[in-house]
């Protein structure tokens, strides 16, 4: 560990755009408490804005399921070894892995064996599938920061310290989003029907879902001729793939909004999105949504056999019921997606009921995550930073 005369060092690895966002919010809480500490590793724009030294991009880690991970396996193994060597010599005072468990848990296990404290921010979805992973987590993680209140009890028998810190987005996003303000900023008429399309941030997601979402939007235009389409992108890869897809469908006149997902969802009446963090963001923004996902067929069958819950979308999982539709695999087709989206546009009472449920969810997750995460980290590892 670094001596008191040296600058302390914390390494972080975020695996994709959503992890970069979580990392930025985590650093917002940590940096004021550790002003002389160097924060560095793998991250993106959100983490850089908090003074993070992003020596590596997270793009190589943004894989889409088993098939993509297998294809990139040699590259990922080399990258993990490169990071381990960089973090071990000289040893960092603390390592924080942000999501990306298939990559970060292996890295954390090696660093923990080297005597480096390890924190994992965002519990792997052991409550949904692969509960046998608990033993792997126990070998790799000293402190687990959990976003959801039902997660810490799952670690009670493992020896892993687990703390519910809430979800940072619940702190950041308003309880009552201002749709009128968002539309004014985007130059959209207040009475116009607006649909936001979020087909994911990873290459596999975009290739599977973007064409289907655009085809569904074309169908919706037949029922809603004045429909405004908003298509936020999360990264440079998304910019490229979306531009290519829209060049093939100029009649859609979709508005591309780079790095403006929250603004797009706030302005929208309904959101059509890929299963993942975006679904929780849409719920916190009180937006009706349709969740879709498509992947390799054999991978999908494997995941369904391993699943413990009947849902894949976080709003449904957290509220323990199907409050928004989930259309997966063959059901994620243009006709069925368009039909499910149109029902939200046509059913105002259902939209009002959903707002009430999503407000309940928001209050459950609003825990001042940056503060709680900082307190948990310093309570466990404060001696490494001069006893703070």
TrEMBL record:
Known catalytic reactions: a lipid X + a UDP-2-N,3-O-bis[(3R)-3-hydroxyacyl]-alpha-D-glucosamine = a lipid A disaccharide + UDP + H(+)
One Gene Ontology molecular-function label: lipid-A-disaccharide synthase activity
Pathway: Bacterial outer membrane biogenesis; LPS lipid A biosynthesis
Organism of provenance: Tepidiphilus baoligensis
Alphabetic keyword roster: Glycosyltransferase, Lipid A biosynthesis, Lipid biosynthesis, Lipid metabolism, Transferase
Gene assigned in the entry: lpxB
Family: Belongs to the LpxB family.
Annotated coiled-coil segments of the chain: none
InterPro entries reported in the protein's UniProt record: Glyco_trans_19
Enzyme class: transferase
Family annotation (NCBIfam families): lpxB (TIGR00215)
Physiological role: Condensation of UDP-2,3-diacylglucosamine and 2,3-diacylglucosamine-1-phosphate to form lipid A disaccharide, a precursor of lipid A, a phosphorylated glycolipid that anchors the lipopolysaccharide to the outer membrane of the cell.
EC number(s) given by UniProt: 2.4.1.182
Protein name: Lipid-A-disaccharide synthase
Database matches in Pfam families: LpxB
């Amino acid at each position: 560990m670094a001596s008191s005369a040296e600058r302390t060092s914390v390494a972080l690895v975020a695996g994709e755009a959503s992890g970069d966002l979580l990392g930025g919010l985590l650093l917002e809480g940590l940096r004021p408490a550790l002003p002389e500490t160097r924060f560095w590793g793998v991250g993106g724009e959100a983490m850089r804005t908090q003074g993070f030294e992003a020596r590596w991009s997270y793009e190589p880690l943004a894989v889409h399921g088993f098939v993509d991970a297998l294809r990139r396996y040699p590259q990922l193994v080399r990258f993990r070894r490169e990071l381990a060597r960089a973090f071990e010599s000289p040893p960092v005072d603390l390592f924080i892995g942000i999501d990306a468990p298939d990559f970060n848990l292996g890295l954390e296990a090696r660093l923990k064996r080297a005597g480096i404290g390890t924190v994992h921010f965002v519990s792997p979805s052991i409550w949904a599938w692969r509960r046998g992973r608990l033993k792997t987590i126990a070998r790799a993680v000293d402190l687990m920061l959990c976003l959801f209140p039902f997660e810490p009890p799952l670690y009670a028998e493992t020896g892993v310290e687990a703390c519910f810190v809430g979800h940072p987005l619940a702190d950041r996003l308003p309880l009552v989003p201002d749709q009128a303000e968002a539309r004014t900023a985007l130059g959209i008429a207040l009475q116009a029907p607006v649909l936001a399309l979020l087909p994911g941030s990873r290459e596999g997601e975009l290739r599977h879902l973007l064409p289907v979402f655009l085809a569904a939007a074309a169908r919706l235009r037949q029922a809603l001729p004045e429909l405004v389409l908003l298509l936020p992108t999360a990264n440079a890869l998304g910019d490229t793939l979306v531009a290519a897809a829209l060049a093939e469908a100029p009649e859609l006149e979709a508005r591309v909004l780079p790095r403006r997902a929250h603004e797009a969802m706030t302005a929208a009446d309904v959101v059509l999105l890929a299963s993942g963090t975006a679904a929780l963001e849409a719920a916190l923004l009180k937006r009706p949504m349709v969740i879709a996902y498509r992947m390799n067929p054999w991978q999908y069958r494997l995941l369904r056999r391993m699943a413990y819950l009947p849902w894949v979308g976080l709003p449904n999982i957290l509220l323990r019921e199907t409050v928004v539709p989930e259309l997966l695999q063959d059901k994620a087709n243009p006709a069925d997606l368009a039909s499910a989206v149109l029902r939200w546009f046509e059913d105002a009472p259902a939209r009002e009921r959903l707002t009430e449920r999503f407000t309940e969810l928001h209050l459950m997750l609003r825990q001042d995550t940056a503060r709680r995460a900082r307190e948990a980290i310093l309570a466990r590892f404060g001696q490494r930073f001069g006893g703070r």
